[in-house]
Amino acid sequence: MKLLKYCPSCGRESLHWDGEKKWSCPECNFTLYNNVAGAVAVVIRCGDEVYLTRRNRDPKKGKLDLAGGFVDPKESAEETCRRELFEELQLDVDISNLKYITSLPNVYQYKEIDYNTIDLFYEYNVAEKFEVNLELSEISEAVWIQLNQLNLDDIAFDSQKRFFEDYLKK
């Protein structure tokens, strides 16, 4: 992980990383916490198939991903699901039909910084399969995949791999 060196309070090259969750400056007693960020992932399901996207950016460019993203300030996890599904897939969902499943910790590395996240997993069932016009800046394609043909090595993030390991057993 790329470490911060300069204290944002006193400007000295004195920040110390504790290896887990905070930077501190012994010169001015400033502390910066690397708190866990909230993120959502939505399993869009039609029968025995799930709708997955292929990442068009790092981290994990080219790997399969669930639709979702980071929770914005003053936004509920369900509102994040609605916003992200619309931004990524132009899919307008009724959040009352989202089913919360579980949460799993994850590490999201972006530009050499590790962000600890808590990934909240939801399921959204649809009666019929659909195709959407994609926001190609983030997604290169979206595909329906039979659950029994899902290869966990193709999944981008460790939390989603762990999620699907359990999800496929049910």
Automatic annotation (TrEMBL):
GO terms for cellular component: cytosol. GO terms for biological process: NAD+ catabolic process; NADP+ catabolic process. Coiled coil: none annotated. This is NUDIX hydrolase. GO terms for molecular function: metal ion binding; NADH pyrophosphatase activity. Keywords: Hydrolase, Magnesium, Metal-binding. Residues 34-170 form the Nudix hydrolase domain. Gene3D superfamilies: Nucleoside Triphosphate Pyrophosphohydrolase. It holds the Pfam family NUDIX. The lineage of its organism: Bacteria, Pseudomonadati, Bacteroidota, Flavobacteriia, Flavobacteriales. The keyword Nucleotidyltransferase does not apply. Its cofactor is Mg(2+). InterPro entries: NAD-cap_RNA_hydrolase_NudC, NUDIX_hydrolase-like_dom_sf, NUDIX_hydrolase_dom. It comes from Chryseobacterium indologenes (Flavobacterium indologenes).
